[in-house]
């Protein structure tokens, strides 16, 4: 089992390049199903989640060539058949696998796949996705661990999402691109990755207006074709490195960012007292020891992202005074707290809030990455802690960070991956 060992206490310096976004490329790979043609993704992030969704598509006969050296993925979906059913083992590995449902119904008028992520269903339902498919005229059935949908013809409709779910917005958008007439998605999620998916779909021949706003208009087209695309930068990876600078009270340069997407993170780090300066697509992050505690509430974009919550918790553990983080998107996203406590953090969980009392110092310990962002947060805590921290179950982190240890080494951190 791979782990990452961090010997804390070093200041960071130098620069780091941000990869393209995991949450952009996953729906984009799913969307490539729509064309039955060839799509090329340039500057693709080589992440475990990308390999898993590629395997999901391969299990329905897509031909996917991943060139890790060139960071290029070529996807040919011409061999997918209308009765294709993906490997349930792969689908269960990753919730984002469910994003192939919309494109498959759109292209073939029917699809069946196992419910994604088994035990996740209770807390991360797919009801909004299914309501959207039904509104477009699909007959949807759930049972025996499978979801099935079929429609002779999808017909555009007005769909109001009860909650601006990222995945449901994307899945319904992809299902609607070739539906007859016009679809309007209201209360849509506004994340930048949805705007990116809209751009990709439009380059494939779709007619989508407003992706990235709360109202998306989709005028159905007859056919989709292949295209080439470079996903947007990963705002969560950028935010994680911003906190790497802040938690070590260092100054670093982060390249390949988009200020617009980072506004909620910039606002909160500025409130903490971190100095942030933009220079085109680069950002200087400068933190000294005089940082202040703050309160944060996670919200759908453009609010503070839930995917930055645990990393921010790590930083706030090192700042004197009381900070409160309220999580409004997911019910159970404080699993990092128990691990951080092993490092000397003072965190209390009260319902949907975590109350963090800053401590004088964190101390190295063996801790477990309980999920992707929690794992990243523990590595960050390790950078600030006295002594050695070992973060186990690092496969969670590899789902969403490209060579995190190499990027940190490039900034001067004493970090290494231990394999075996
Ligand atoms: C996406 C991101 C993930 C991020 C999350 C919230 C990808 C691949 N993943 O996940 O990194 O943490 O957005 O920003 O882009 N919900 C329902 N019914 C549904 C769908 C969702 O109740 O049908 C609820 C979920 O249980 C959750 C909330 O809506 O409480 C947000 O989920 P959603 O926006 O759908 O997240 P994902 O698309 O799964």
From TrEMBL:
This is UDP-N-acetylglucosamine 1-carboxyvinyltransferase. SUPFAM superfamilies: EPT/RTPC-like. Keywords: Cell cycle, Cell division, Cell shape, Cell wall biogenesis/degradation, Cytoplasm, Peptidoglycan synthesis, Pyruvate, Transferase. GO terms for cellular component: cytoplasm. GO terms for biological process: cell division; cell wall organization; peptidoglycan biosynthetic process; regulation of cell shape; UDP-N-acetylgalactosamine biosynthetic process. Residues 6-408 form the Enolpyruvate transferase domain. It comes from the Bacteria. Signal peptide: none annotated. Pathway: Cell wall biogenesis; peptidoglycan biosynthesis. It comes from Clostridium muellerianum. It is found in: Cytoplasm. It catalyses: phosphoenolpyruvate + UDP-N-acetyl-alpha-D-glucosamine = UDP-N-acetyl-3-O-(1-carboxyvinyl)-alpha-D-glucosamine + phosphate.
């Amino acid at each position: 089992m791979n782990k990452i060992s961090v010997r804390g206490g070093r200041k960071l310096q130098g620069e780091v390049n941000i990869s393209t976004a995991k949450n952009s490329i996953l729906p984009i790979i799913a969307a490539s199903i729509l064309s039955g043609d060839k799509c090329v993704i340039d500057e693709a992030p080589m992440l475990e989640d990308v390999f898993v969704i590629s395997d999901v598509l391969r299990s329905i006969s897509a031909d996917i060539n991943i060139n890790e050296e060139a960071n290029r993925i070529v996807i040919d979906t011409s061999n997918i058949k209308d009765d294709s059913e993906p490997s349930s083992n792969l689908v269960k590995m990753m919730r984002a696998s469910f994003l192939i449902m919309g494109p498959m119904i759109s292209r073939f008028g029917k699809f069946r796949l196992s419910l994604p992520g088994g035990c996740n269903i209770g807390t991360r339902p797919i009801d909004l996705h299914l309501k959207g498919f039904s509104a477009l005229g699909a007959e949807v059935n759930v049972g025996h661990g499978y979801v099935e949908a079929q429609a002779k013809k999808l017909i555009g409709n007005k769909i109001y999402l009860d909650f601006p779910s990222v995945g449901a917005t994307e899945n319904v958008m992809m299902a609607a691109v070739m539906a007859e007439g016009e679809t309007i998605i209201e209360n849509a999620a506004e994340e930048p990755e949805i705007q990116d998916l809209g751009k990709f779909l439009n380059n494939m021949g779709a007619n989508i207006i407003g992706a990235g706003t709360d109202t998306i208009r989709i005028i159905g087209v007859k056919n989709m074709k292949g295209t080439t695309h470079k996903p947007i930068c990963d705002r969560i990876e950028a935010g994680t490195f911003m906190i790497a600078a802040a938690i070590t009270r260092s100054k670093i340069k982060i390249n390949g960012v988009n200020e617009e997407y980072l506004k909620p993170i910039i606002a909160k780090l500025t409130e903490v007292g971190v100095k942030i300066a933009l220079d085109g697509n680069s950002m200087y992050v400068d933190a000294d020891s005089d940082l202040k505690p703050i309160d944060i509430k996670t919200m759908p974009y453009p609010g503070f992202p839930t995917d930055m919550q645990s990393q921010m918790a790590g930083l706030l553990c090192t700042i004197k005074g009381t900070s409160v983080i309220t999580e409004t998107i997911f019910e159970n996203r404080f699993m990092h707290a128990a691990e951080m406590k092993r490092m000397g953090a003072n965190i209390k969980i009260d319902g949907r809030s975590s109350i963090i009392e800053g401590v004088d110092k964190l101390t190295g310990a063996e801790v477990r990455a309980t999920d992707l962002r929690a794992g990243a947060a523990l590595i960050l805590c390790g950078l600030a802690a006295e002594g050695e921290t070992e973060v186990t179950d690092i496969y969670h982190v590899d789902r969403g960070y490209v060579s995190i240890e190499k990027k940190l080494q490039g900034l001067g951190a004493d970090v290494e991956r231990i394999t075996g």
